[in-house]
Amino acid sequence: MMRRPPGPLPLLSCHSRDVLETAAADASAGQPDSYCCRFCPRPGATHLLASADEDGAIKLWDTRPAADVALTQCVAAHTNAVYELDWSADGRHLLSAAGDRAIKLWDSERLTLLAEFRRHSRTVKTVTFLPEDPCVFASGGRDGVVEVWDLRVAKQVSHEIRPRPTNKTGGRGRSAASMAPASVTSLVFRDDTYLLSATSGDSAVSVWDLRKHYSGGSGSRQPLPLCQLIGRQPERGVVCMAADRPLAQLYVSRIQDDIQRYSMTSWTADTDVSFSGHACGSFYVRCCLSADGSQLVSGSSDRHAYLWSAAAPGPPLARLPGHADEVTCVAWSSDGRTLATVCDDLRLRLWRADVTPPTEDGDSLLMEAMSGAPRAPLPLYTLGPVNDPRAPAAAEYRSPTANLPNWVADGVSPHRPVAARPQRTPRADWLTCLSQKKRAQVNCKTRPDTLTLPGSAGSRRHQGRADKPRPADRRATLLRRGEGACTKARALLSSASDVCPAAVPDHSPQSLV
Hints:
Blueprint: E1 9-10, E2 12-15, E3 19-21, E4 34-39, E5 48-53, E6 57-62, E7 71-76, E8 82-87, E9 93-98, E10 103-107, E11 112-117, E12 124-130, E13 133-141, E14 146-150, E15 157-161, E16 184-189, E17 194-199, E18 205-209, E19 227-229, E20 238-244, E21 249-254, E22 259-263, E23 268-275, E24 287-289, E25 295-298, E26 305-309, E27 318-320, E28 327-332, E29 338-343, E30 347-353, E31 364-366, E32 368-369, E33 380-381, H1 407-410, H2 430-446, H3 457-461, H4 471-499
Parallel strand pairs: 1-33
Antiparallel strand pairs: 2-30, 2-31, 3-30, 4-5, 5-6, 6-7, 8-9, 9-10, 10-11, 12-13, 13-14, 14-15, 16-17, 17-18, 18-19, 20-21, 21-22, 22-23, 24-25, 25-26, 26-27, 27-32, 28-29, 29-30
């Protein structure tokens, strides 16, 4: 997805038709609250919103403005409250975690049950898919156990992480209650190698390396995380986490504390970077990032939802009014044009980024800019082109080098020609040199007239005997010397016969008769 450059927030509005009742029309006191909601990430189905209630029901909403019926499907998924929902990256499957200790996998189109997983001994609080692989997901519960599931293996569990229990008393006497493990409240995959987990017992965020083998057997040692990200107040439990994976940034919301940002490359906290101004009074108040990572939104216990620009930490830039109770869950659509807020007043509100600024009438609610925002003027904008007559005209840009001579166009260059560097012969590697030496030695043995390469082992071995003739050369020399002696003898005999013919014996055939 193309990331929008950081800047001001979009102008959001909520019309009266976008306020959906999560309870029945004849709702009475004690109706179930909605704990979570998630938009579908599949292209073409980004208008589908899944929500879950305290009574175990999962609902699918059609959030398009022109939709006739907002609630499309509703199924009784669990026998207890559903605390978490998560879509797969392709939007084909939906995971649900509930208080009946079960994790269920659903077909997103028809909400039919595909599989059920039971391994936790207590309530399952959180579940999340691995974005790169829809067959891998992680879950955590109140038993303090983190399970990493893989649907392609026989046991379906590739890792079981049982962190060390927390001693809340701090003394030497450790009772069973004081050593009870803290509840796992949030899980985030950085990639297929690292998994981040957080609990309600302290402010630490544990980083687990999934390349190691974690087994939760009774006789095995308790695993240690790769590192831990500690908050400013160690006793504050973690409520939820939101990850900006392209920028490797992690946003951590803690109980009664600000939202802090960490780096998922160096595993350190950003210095003096926090998002403040909201009231996180319970573990049901969630935060969420927009799909492009430019906006951060969080619920609050003071009946508002607050928005920040990711590039502008500090107090919020705007808030969303109109809620009658604590705002618990918030969710951005993948196209960034719709924001859903869930409140304990049994209503689900849809805030839309309209192309044209909405009119402030009795049928719609507008996002309110905060007075303590560090920017001026009002840092809000609409997603469509708005012609503002008050905006100054853009000045014509003129290059500072426009009056300088153009040597390329004139064909004259004031620079001296740069001499080309001599081409160096590439040096052969050691294997090529060794092959050449071996080939030269073989040639010297088969052909005597072949010279040995200088510097080779053969030339050094025969360096002291280089001037001595070889056997073949000595044989040729002797033959040449014999022919020369015979020639001289014939010449002497011919000269002697001319002086005294009788002195020279006649070996002709006539003399023998």
